[in-house]
Amino acid sequence: MIPSPKNLRSLSKADLQTLFAEWGEPSFRAAQVYDWIWAKGVHAISDMRNIPTALQAKLSAEYAIHPISVTQAQHSEDGTIKNAVKLPDGLIVESVLIPTEKRITACVSSQVGCSLNCAFCATARLKRMRNLGPDEIYDQVRAIHQQGMEHFGRPLTNIVFMGMGEPLMNYHNVLTAIEKITQPDGLGLSPRRITLSTVGLPKMIKKLADDGVKFHLAVSLHSARDEVRSQIMPINDVAPIAELREALEYWYRATKRRITFEYVVWKGVNDAPEDVHALVQLCKRIPVKVNLIEYNAIGDERFQQADPEALEAYVTALARIGVTAKVRRSRGKDIDAACGQLANKTLPEGLSPMPA
What we know:
Blueprint: E1 6-7, H1 13-22, H2 28-39, H3 53-62, E2 63-64, E3 69-75, E4 81-86, E5 92-99, E6 104-107, E7 111-112, E8 130-131, H4 134-152, E9 158-161, H5 171-182, E10 194-198, H6 202-210, E11 216-220, H7 226-232, H8 241-255, E12 259-264, H9 273-283, E13 288-293, H10 308-320, E14 325-328
Parallel strand pairs: 1-2, 6-9, 9-10, 10-11, 11-12, 12-13, 13-14
Antiparallel strand pairs: 3-4, 4-5, 5-6, 7-8
Helix pairs in contact: 1-2, 4-5, 6-8, 9-10
């Protein structure tokens, strides 16, 4: 049986230097190949034009580049584009291009499916199959950069890890992908233009702080009351508000960067005065800003968009303590590309729905 080619993009620049030294090749070939696979984003070794044909053949005998492919791109009336992204093993995830007047934002996935079972999220209805590799995450970003240029004449400006999966449960691969995206011989995007969104894993949030990351942190909160949050986000049973708060305080002490709370308000779930009070008390402890997000239905009658008065109660109460709170209107709703809707109506290949 002929072994499958190894993934060339799994090699670091140091690995490439070692490989070429063993092959008796000059050391500068490592930088050239690295530039082709990350900065230029080629999908075939034969496209590396300044690499000798003999060396291309030698590389191709053992290695290959395994790119993603966008098999479907749905276009919203507001300009949002949702991509069905086919991975090298045939599984599919989704990514989203979100255009505004000043930005082109890539919303990318980090896992195939998700294991956290948040009651309001469509992705939670899919079983988690596996983590994405750094190259698969990077390819989503590069594909959206190309779409931005093609459809809007503008390059990618921002990245949010708010697609399918929990990024902190794929820690090494996500941080490696961000390294490739931000380094000068990668895409060269500033880490200040990247936001990682998590349900709130205290141990991993502290690790981010200890590792000195430069990107921004957002927490999918949705309630500051344990009894409410545990009903809609089972992770709260093992990482309750007090532990999450302590981890976020640790993050701020280490990074001096404000956290963003992502917060959907639902009718009869978290729209009572005590819900507002609990969030205010939490925000007094941590420098934050709050995004109050318009709810996007996934076919579960338990969750209904709250009345405008409930949202205004949050905005007013937070403003009193000097916390910026903005109501975010979702984009791409008509193609199920809005927050919480990924994998809602079209299940990725190889995934099966979980019980609602």
